[in-house]
C-alpha cells in the first residue's frame, strides 16, 4: 500500500480493506452520480488569490461555532452505519475528534447508541443528528437521550423524506435480492474486515433504534426501515414542535435553496448545513459549491452557515469558508480514514487537513479563520461556477 499523504489516499486504502457492499455504499451517489461528481469538480473550480508579504508568521485555525471555541473550522458529520467500517467505529471516530477538539456528530442510524458513544468517548463534543421519522414519540425519546448524554447541538436532517435511488446498493448486495448471502461472500474475501468488524464488532444493530425495533434492528432491515419510517409529510411548521422539544442549538441540514434557508432562519434554527447529502439523494441538483454563496448572502447574518459535500483537502475547506461557510462538516473523509486505519486514521486525517489548511491560508495571506471571506477568491465565484457547465 502506498503511503497515505492525502484524504484520497485513505479512500484507496479503504477500497482495499472493505467488502464491496460497504465501499460502494459509502462511495456512491444517487442515479447517475452527476451531483456527487460536481460536488468535487465544482469546488475545485473555485480559485483562490495568492497573496504575498501579508505577515502570516502565525496562522490561527481556531473558530467559534455555537458558542464553543474549537481548534479547527470543521466537525465530523453524521454517517449512517459508521460502526460497520471499523469495530464500533463511531466511538473510534469520536475519540479522534476529541483529540483535535472538534465536534463529532452521531447519526440516528449509527451502530453505536448514544450511551455507548458517551461511555467510549466521555470527553467528546457530541452533536446528535436526527432524521424526520413518522413516530414523533420515538423522536422525543431520542432527543431526551441526547440531552441526557450531553449532546451540545442537534443536527436535523431534512433532505431525506425518502431514501434516494442509489444504483450501487442493489448491484453490490447492500440491498435487494439475496443481499445477506452476497454480503457474506464478500466478507470472506476481506478477512481483516471480517475479523475486526464481522466477528468482533457485534452487535450489528442500529443502536439507537433497538428500543423501537428490538430484534429487527439488525443490518438486514436498515434500508427497509428508512424507506418505511422516514416522513415525507413533514412541513416547516413541524419545526415549532422540534424547537420546543430541544433547547440547545438547532442546525437544519440539507438546505440547497435560499428560500429554504430563509425559512429555517424564520423557524428559529441557529444554523444550517448547505448540503445535497453528498450527492446521495436527488441527482441533478446544484453542487454545494454552486449553491453556497447565494445562501450565505441570504441568511449569513441570521444563522451560522455550515457546508458539506466534496471536501477532500484543507484547500477545499478554505474554499468553502471563502464562499460563505463558517464551518465544514466532513463526511466521506473521516469514513475513509476510519475504514483504512481506525481511530488512528481519523486522527491522521485531521492532522493532514490541519497542515493543509495552515499552508494554504499562509499562501493566501490569511492569518486567521476570521480573515477568510469573499475577498480571498480570485474573481467572481458565480462566473467560475458557470464555466463548469
In short:
The chain is of the alpha/beta class. The protein has helices at residues 7-17, 20-27, 34-44, 89-99, 114-120, 136-148, 168-172, 179-188, 191-199, 210-213, 222-229, 238-245, 258-266, 288-299, 314-323, 332-363, 381-386, and strands at 63-65, 68-70, 74-76, 104-106, 126-131, 153-157, 250-255, 271-274, 304-307, 327-330.
Properties at a glance:
two-stranded antiparallel sheet; eight-stranded parallel beta sheet; single chain; 17 helices; 389 residues; 10 strands; alpha/beta
* SS content category: alpha/beta
The whole-number mean of residue pLDDT values reads 92
Total number of β-strand segments?
10
Taking pLDDT < 50 over at least 5 consecutive residues as the criterion, the unreliable ranges are none
Number of helices: 17
SSE pattern, N- to C-terminal: HHHEEEHEHEHEHHHHHHEHEHEHEHH
The whole-angstrom Rg is 20 Å
Largest sheet strand order: 3-10-9-8-7-6-5-4
What share of residues is helical? 40-55%
Q: In angstroms, what separates the terminal alpha carbons?
A: 36 Å
Describe the structure.
It contains 17 helices and ten strands. The chain starts with 6 loop residues before the first helix and ends with a helix. The strands form two sheets. An eight-stranded parallel β-sheet has the order 3-10-9-8-7-6-5-4. The protein has a two-stranded antiparallel sheet with strand order 1-2. It is globular, with a radius of gyration of 20 Å. Strand 1 and strand 2 form a beta hairpin. The protein is an alpha/beta fold and 389 residues long.
Amino acid at each position: 500500500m502506498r503511503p497515505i499523504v492525502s484524504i484520497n489516499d485513505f479512500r484507496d486504502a479503504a477500497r482495499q480493506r472493505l467488502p464491496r457492499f460497504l465501499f460502494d455504499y459509502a462511495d456512491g451517489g444517487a442515479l447517475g452520480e452527476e451531483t456527487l461528481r460536481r460536488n468535487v469538480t465544482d469546488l475545485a473550480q473555485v480559485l483562490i488569490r495568492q497573496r504575498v508579504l501579508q505577515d502570516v508568521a502565525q496562522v490561527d485555525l481556531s473558530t467559534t461555532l455555537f458558542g464553543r471555541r474549537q481548534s479547527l473550522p470543521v466537525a465530523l458529520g453524521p454517517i449512517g452505519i459508521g460502526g460497520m467500517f471499523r469495530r464500533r467505529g463511531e466511538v473510534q471516530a469520536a475519540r479522534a475528534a476529541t483529540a483535535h477538539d472538534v465536534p463529532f456528530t452521531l447519526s440516528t442510524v449509527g451502530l453505536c447508541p448514544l450511551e455507548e458513544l458517551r461511555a467510549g468517548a466521555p470527553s467528546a463534543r457530541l452533536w446528535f443528528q436526527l432524521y424526520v421519522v413518522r413516530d414523533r414519540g420515538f423522536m422525543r425519546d431520542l432527543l431526551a437521550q441526547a440531552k441526557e448524554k450531553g449532546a451540545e447541538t442537534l443536527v436535523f436532517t431534512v433532505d431525506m423524506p425518502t431514501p434516494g435511488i442509489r444504483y450501487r446498493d442493489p448491484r453490490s448486495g447492500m440491498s435487494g435480492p439475496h443481499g445477506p448471502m452476497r454480503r457474506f461472500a464478500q466478507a470472506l474475501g476481506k478477512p481483516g474486515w471480517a475479523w475486526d468488524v464481522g466477528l468482533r464488532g457485534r452487535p450489528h444493530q442500529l443502536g439507537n433504534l433497538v428500543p423501537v425495533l428490538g430484534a429487527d434492528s439488525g443490518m438486514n432491515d436498515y434500508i427497509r426501515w428508512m424507506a418505511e419510517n422516514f416522513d415525507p409529510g413533514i412541513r416547516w411548521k413541524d419545526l415549532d414542535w422540534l424547537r420546543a422539544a430541544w433547547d440547545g442549538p438547532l442546525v437544519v441540514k440539507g438546505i440547497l435553496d435560499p428560500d429554504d434557508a430563509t425559512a429555517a432562519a424564520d423557524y428559529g434554527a441557529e444554523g444550517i448545513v448547505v448540503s445535497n447529502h453528498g450527492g446521495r439523494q436527488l441527482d441533478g441538483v446544484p453542487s454545494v459549491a454552486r449553491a453556497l454563496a447565494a445562501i450565505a448572502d441570504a441568511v449569513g447574518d441570521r444563522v451560522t452557515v455550515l457546508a458539506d459535500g466534496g471536501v477532500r483537502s484543507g484547500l477545499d475547506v478554505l474554499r468553502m469558508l471563502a464562499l460563505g461557510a463558517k464551518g465544514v462538516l466532513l463526511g466521506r473523509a473521516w469514513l475513509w480514514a476510519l475504514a483504512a486505519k481506525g481511530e488512528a486514521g481519523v486522527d491522521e486525517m485531521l492532522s493532514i487537513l490541519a497542515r493543509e489548511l495552515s499552508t494554504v491560508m499562509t499562501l493566501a495571506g490569511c492569518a486567521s479563520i476570521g480573515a477568510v471571506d469573499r475577498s480571498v477568491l480570485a474573481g467572481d465565484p458565480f462566473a467560475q461556477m458557470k464555466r463548469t457547465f
